[in-house]
Specification:
The chain is mostly helical. The protein is built from four helices and no strands. It is rod-shaped, with a radius of gyration of 38 Å. The two termini are 23 Å apart.
Length: 179
Amino acid sequence: MKRLTTLALMACFVASPIFAEEKEQGGLEVWKWANFVVLAGALGYLIGKKGGPFFAARSVKIRKDIVEAGEVRKEAETRAAEVERRLANLEAEIAALRAESGKEEEAEAGRFGRHTAAEIAKTQANAEQEIAAAGKAARLELKRYCADLAVGLAEQKIRARMTPETQDALVRGFVRDLK
């Protein structure tokens, strides 16, 4: 910035004899150039002072968001593996519950016919409710996971379509909106 100021002052000193001659010829052209030099210097100063930190902060935020998205994706993959494990265990638990209820029925059939039938019905109803609740919870978790994956895929598609020309157009539009 100091160089730019020094250069502008040197240009004014060098051009002052020319401005003096032109003042005799009309003088308005000199003031137009002087205004231009002042305006260009002010704009250069503002861009140099404010532009660099703005774009640096923006790139840091983008990098941070990319890292966070990677972490979210890893968490989603972990959740998906947990849901799959639960679903695999759910089938085994269902089979175990059915086998257990069958054994109980055989053991108690001789002595407690009616009582056993009522207990089996209660056990099966509870098991079905637990299975339904576990299945519903697993489906909800799977839907959440799918939504997270869809958001991640959409983000990847947007990033894939983002070309340097598109980024330049967005920056130019932003700068134009600032004016």
